[in-house]
Write a structure and sequence with these properties.
single chain; alpha+beta; 8-stranded mixed sheet; 8 helices
Length: about 230
């Protein structure tokens, strides 16, 4: 699978947003509307604060939202309430799904932008890229915003993970163009054998952001796949 496009990208950790390609975003300040802020999780606030300026300044036809853990803090709170036999909050329950953040983002933008949500465990970044590639391959005129993000894991879950999870967000805006040629092939030069896990998700996102920021051609390996990013 191969396609060509232009890309602008940003990487956010906590409230610091780093421009990888394209133009810097406006200085970080709370952009979450008051009506949404009261019920938004930290994940949703990060998504809105980072991505609302992108939608305001650039045309976005479709959003692909990729997250490994989704609204895990809200879900943990619900499970804790259940264990304590307490009444569940209908609002918290309704907003514990993985589509909460992109849904609130479209509401905040006041634009009826369609979106899809994907999750692929330690291959969540790749799952998001596959979704973008398939849609862009079929509709090359599309303007697609890929958002890959997670909160830091709650302490109760941290000992189950071998990697350091911290709040992070990677946003890539794909448009029709000739700046990049992207190709995905099975196999990755033997770095990871069949069935063997690739790089941990959080570190994979950081390494991917670093390579993209160099603005030069590079290869990036996931489990059983190699993505070639050629700068034209």
């Amino acid at each position: 699978m191969q396609f060509r496009c232009d890309i602008q990208a940003w990487h956010a950790c906590s409230e610091h947003v780093l421009e990888l390609t394209g133009h810097p975003l406006p200085p970080t300040q709370s952009k979450v509307p008051a009506g949404i802020k009261r019920r938004a999780s930290q994940l949703s606030k990060l998504v809105i604060n980072t991505c609302l300026p992108i939608i305001a300044e650039r045309s976005v036809d479709y959003i692909v939202f990729a997250t490994q853990h989704g609204e895990i803090h809200r879900t943990l709170n619900l499970l804790t309430d259940l264990a304590s036999e307490e009444e569940l909050s209908p609002t918290a329950f309704a907003q514990s799904v993985t589509s909460t953040a992109p849904g609130l983002l479209t509401i905040a933008s006041k634009q009826p932008i369609a979106f899809t949500t994907v999750s692929g465990g330690k291959n969540t970044l790749q799952a998001g890229l596959v979704e973008v590639a398939m849609r862009f391959y079929q509709q090359p005129q599309s303007n697609i915003l890929l958002i890959v993000t997670d909160e830091a894991l709650p302490e109760i879950y941290q000992h189950h993970s071998a990697e350091q999870h911290q709040q992070n967000l990677l946003a890539l805006h794909f448009t029709q163009g000739q700046s990049w040629q992207i190709e995905c092939n099975s196999g990755n030069n033997g770095e990871h054998s069949a069935g063997e896990a690739g790089p941990a998700e959080t570190s994979a996102r950081t390494r991917f952001a670093d390579k993209l920021a160099d603005k030069t051609s590079f290869d990036f390996d996931f489990t059983n796949t190699r993505w070639s990013w050629k700068k034209l």
